Amino acid sequence: MRSDAPVERELLLLGGGHAHLGVLRRLARRPLPAGIRVTLVAREAEALYSGMLPGLIAGRFTERDCVIDLPRLARAAGARFLRAEARGLDAAGGQVICDGGRPPLRFDLLSINSGAAPALVPGAAEHALILRPFDRFLADWRALLGRMARRPLRLLVVGGGAAGVEVALALRQRLGVAARIGLVGRGASPLPGLAPTAGRAASAALAAQQVAWYPRVEVVRVAPDALWLADGRALPCDAAIWAAGATPPAWLSGSGLALCPKGFLAVDASLRSLSHPRIFAAGDVATVLPHPRPRAGVFAVRQGAPLAANLRRSLAGKAPRPFRPQRRYLALVSTGEAAIAAWGGAALSAPCLLRVKDAIDRRWIGMADRMPTMPPPRPAPPAEMRCGGCGAKLAAPVLARALAALPRAAACPDVVAGLEAPDDAALLRLPSAAGHLLVQTVDMFRAPVEDPFLFGRIAATHALGDIAAMGAIPRVALAIAALPAAAPAVQEADLLAMLRGGQLVLEEAGARLVGGHTAEAAEAMLGFAITGEVAEDAPLRRGGLRPGDVLLLTKKLGTGTLLAAAMAGAARAGWVEAALAQMQQSPFPAAGILAAHDATACADVTGFGLLGHLLEMLRASGCAARLDPSAVPALEGAEAMLAAGHLSTLDPGNRAAALAFLEGTSERLALLLDPQTAGGLLAGVPAGRAEACLGALRAAGCTASIIGQVEDGAPRIRLEPGCMNGVSSICLPQPAPC
After folding, report:
1. Pick the catalytic residue: 390, 602, 702, 731?
2. Is 390 a catalytic residue?
């Protein structure tokens, strides 16, 4: 989040577990002092609450009921949200190693609450539905429901603990008596970690609902059609659901942190690492050596308050305080239409207990919705004067260290001087082949996201859109980057992340990052000046449209409103994640298909919206167009956010520029005016090639649509809902995300 005080230290919250949710709730009520940046890092933006998963399987809850919007929660606490997955840790260097080509994430203080990994046997990863991570399970669960709709299946749930019992009985409730369901466990009775009376109640529930119980069974391998057991037997099944065991994340073994004998993080009573005082841990990933407890969610929830307090104390230079968890806890295990309550050695089963469990779960999941959409203000120290002119450049050591950490691509004969041999300017060899033109473009904007690596990817994709729209090939790029004042180590890490994100996208498109310029600014900004080339007879220009050409759009609209709504805390995380994914889709596959189908003109749809960029093409071509608003594809949630009033600040300007040239109206006018970041290509294609072009675009994974047609006349746009129904009447494959 933007802060008026320069960032001096960083608190990294690795994982979106229960304890970290508690930390964020407390930070929303009582912010940390200015100058401390908090970042939540998680592998998914919408975290499924594990306590409600059986209810989701049973059909009592929808997916929407069960997810916590992590970006919204982070924003309410004044924290950043970064979607990434840890792959390692440099504890001494204060860095978390992530996947996806992202540079390491630095920290001054680290808290780990990333959960445990499932303990799998050979074949489980390939052939079983594994409960964790939950987002992957949900995709497999939807596919399983599709199979069940065709014929009854034999299902086996592996794991006799609370999760296995709940899932097996939830399957029975959802699928009815037609499905054959079994539960496999190592113990003599289910729920071995609870009181014997709880196990007997679970056995009775399984028997009453015709769920077969296989006791004292050890699964050693999962095959596509069976579970293979340690005694050599095979249990046939059509699908297996894995709900057994927990193991430490694989990267912990090489982290250098103190571990307990089972490989989990070893922490003291204050939840601090025994070996590294800058690192704390909570939840299933850690074992509190003075007070070992079962890996149950209730203990992770209770750790939120002491973890938040001790992180605050550590940042203030104070010693953390020990925390003693309760010894006994109330376990509520759902059994279909009832629930088992276990406390110590006693247990009770009743339908009313399921209502109690559901109420507790709904209250917990609703805590994110009850939090403010914007963070509370933090008192800032008096602002230090920052210079302008060349005194506003980033310091030389910051720049030098960031560039030194940026990977170098293989030598390119066209680059004489670039990042490998820096000089006052890059030296390039011009295209030697006759009949080629240089293509140059530049784009720059403020950060629409808090993740500098993602910002770099989006900024580069956006800048490459102009090159792709011209039918050109990118060769080299210069970066223009600005960052707010901060500690040198913070600026270095953010600059490296921005540049590396952009560099990966540029290199995927065949371009080299050869240099650039940096400066300080009130907030992060990034852009790229890109040079490419195109054959002299091949560039696609705006002015090539001809009457009769069909207009195609290669991406959905709505990034402007979704980004605006996300800033206000109104957009669902899933909607924003889908928009961010589209913003990173390369424009070049679509550009190649358009060229292969004799496209006559092309432009990338960006800040001026679909109508604004179409008008530019019509003016250059001396034509008019009719546009079918109902055929224009929209990102999920975009129209809901527009209807709620979440308009981009560029909307008034786009509206003023376009309305005088419109005939007709549409309830989707705001969508047609919405400014796009890294938007799709808008192209004219001869009518005889349009259907084939659309089919090729969709087969390549583009969410392309035919949206209008060029006509004779002065440059105007006639909005005519349904006018393109006859043009796009053949059956086409449905698009999948690129």
Report:
1. 390
2. yes
